[in-house]
Amino acid sequence: MNAHTVLLTLLRMYRPIFLWFGATLVIGAGIADLVLGAVTEPAFSLWMFVAASAVKYWVLVIGVILVSTHLRQFVAAGVTRRALVTGGLIFGVLTSLAVAVLVPLGHGLEDALLGEVAAGYPAWSPRLGLGEFGHVLPSCLAFFVSGAAVVAAFYRYGAWRGLPLLVPALLPALVTEGLLGLGGNGELLTRFLPYAAAVTVSVGLSLVGAMLYRRVMRDVTIRRSTTS
Amino acid sequence: MFDERSPIYVQIADGIKNDILSGALEEDGQVMSTNQYAAFYRINPATAAKGFAQLVDEGVLYKKRGIGMFVTPDARAKLRDERRKRFFADVVGPMLEEAARIGVSVDEIRKHLDGATR
Amino acid sequence: MIPMISVRDLTVRYGATTAVDGLTMELAPGRIYGLLGRNGSGKTSLLSVLAAYRRADGGSVEIDGVDPFENARIMRDTVFVRDTLDVPEGDRVGKVLDFHARLRPRWDAGLAERLTEAFGLDRRKRVSALSRGQRSGLGVVLGLASRASLTLLDEVYLGMDAAARSTFYRELLDDYLAHPRTIILSTHLIQEVADLFEEVVIIDRGRLVVQEETDTFRARGVAVTGPAEAVETFVSGRTVLGRQSLGGVRQATLYGGLGDEEERRAEQAGLSLAPVGIQDLFVHLTSGEHTPEAVR
Question: Which residues from chain B sit within 8 angstroms of residue C32, using beta carbons?
Fold first, then answer.
């Protein structure tokens, strides 16, 4: 059973969840925007306020579930740890890409909806959209990897012995959060380092985190339950 | 179905022999396959196969390659001869011993048998 | 015999506890094995290593000549069902079955459906809502319908009533007859399944005690009963698994069959001989009065 099969299975498994989640979010924000636009002239982006800051936590949760639920489930169906880790990482990257596209897309749609009626609305442009994509993607990747690595460390070594690994495992998410961000109103935040350097550091740390995750999972024992 | 006293394959072989003696299995007739036997009696097929192999060794069954197992034409006669030889030693002997232990005379036994066969 | 499974000096530890202690054995392909042992004897640990659920701490395990750990080909063709069902608790039965159907190359959907019905499982029910017996039933469905070359079933009958267990044994045998493969069934309800095993493997305190054809093993135990003195004279020099006395009468349980000559000698000494049930024999062998080596 190879990583390819794992990836396809995960995509199938999460497809309905993604569709429901995405649809609820887009429709919910759309309706809220219509109401807002009718009663007032919003000077902020609801979409960026609600969605943009949240997406990294979704992928973090997926990273966590990969270890806490999918590891046992897939190995019990005859899949190697290696295949699960590789397939899961690719799945995490694809999910991060998808949400990184979703964020500027939603902002653009909202702009089309409100940009005309609300003068103070933070306007959207394809250039800004590209910047949003460039900020959301590394942050999602980092959160995904950190989520997976932290749980893997605890799953394999237990609460106390897993503790030292907490630092390198959390590093991608913490550093990326410090360097790159989106403001509550969707403004692009690039701190301490120029964008190119910040992305290089972030992606580099995520790669290291992914390697740590892979290493910890390589010969992990499949426990009877996540807690014991 | 099977008891703990002897290996199951021996009990299987004995069961088939009894079926041949009673006529339930005809000479040259096909017997169940080991798998059918295993499924019917809920036992491991290797155990059934062992019982069958013993019967082949003893010349009670013979194999037709690719078809199955059959009862040897003279199996019934052979089994009867064997059992007859052992009848007095295995059945009558112990009975007389028991009779002697509890004071039943041979005459009494003879009378009982006359009554039973009349 | 070309072994399918070859275990050499296997050691499995949990912290300070040694669960499997230098175990060595070889199993031929295509047979049903009964893996017998008391709780904590190391059965589950042994099976976990065979299933590549964990690495050995010492020694080696080979399946088809290679280490099963992280071997994609071996793991795909091995199924391990243990009492804690390794499926997401929140999933519905139907989803669990579909998941395994996708990942198991030889999955038999028809068999899965029949078994699901036989064990009274509702496809729409969540795993967390199943009773203990139904969970076991689901485990059996996964174990049999995967139709893996190496099928490891670890005390999968927990919580099943007699009828469900009987269904399980029947389906196991029928499917094995139609699709012979290596099945290792660990249990301590020996009496009711012994007839299905081609061989029994008994382990105690992480060591191999007996590996033998079931029929041969069955004939190993003899209970000798009679006057205490006569019993002791007769059994001296033999492996005695247990003794019990009532007044002047003693019963000794011997390990190792008796020949015709010995049976006659016992009879002359006024002793009576009786077979020992396979369950009793197992209890005697693992009751802790003997080191496992004593009977080998």
Answer: 44
The hierarchical CATH code for the domain C5-216 is 3.40.50.300
Average pLDDT over every residue of C16-22: 95
Mean pLDDT across chain B:
89
Mutation target to probe the B interface, by most B beta carbons within 10 A, among C177, C191, C281 is C177
One of 3.30.70.2020, 3.40.640.10, 3.30.565.10, 3.40.50.10070 is the CATH number of C220-295, namely 3.30.70.2020
Q: How far apart are CA B16 and CA B52, in angstroms?
A: 9
C293 has pLDDT over 60: no
For B:31-70, CB contacts with C below 8 A are: 35, 38-39, 41-47, 50
Tell whether C255 is within 8 A of chain A (Cβ). no
- What pLDDT, on a 0 to 100 scale, did the predictor assign at position A144? 98
Determine whether the interchain pair C198/B35 forms a contact, defined as Cβ–Cβ distance below 8 Å. no
Position C294 scores a pLDDT of: 47
Please compute the mean of the pLDDT values over residues B27-42 and round it to a whole number. Answer: 92
Q: Which chain B residue's Cα is nearest to C193?
A: B43
Whether residue B6 and residue C219 make contact (CB cut-off 8 A), yes or no, is yes
Q: Which residues of B touch C172 (CB under 8 A)?
A: none
Indicate the CATH number of B8-73 among 3.30.450.20, 3.30.70.1350, 1.10.10.10, 3.40.50.150.
Answer: 1.10.10.10
Higher pLDDT, C80 or B93: C80
* pLDDT at site B90: 85
Q: What is the DSSP annotation of A81-149?
A: HHHHHHHHHHHHHHHHHHHHHHHHHHHHHHHHHHTTT-TTS----HHHHHHHHHHHHHHHHHHHHHHHH
Q: Which residue has the tokens 């702009």?
A: A111
Cα C81 from Cα C47, distance rounded (Å): 10
Given this model, what pLDDT does residue A43 score? Answer: 81
> Looking at the predicted structure, is the pLDDT value of residue C251 above 50?
yes
A9 at interface of C, judged by CB pairs closer than 8 A: yes
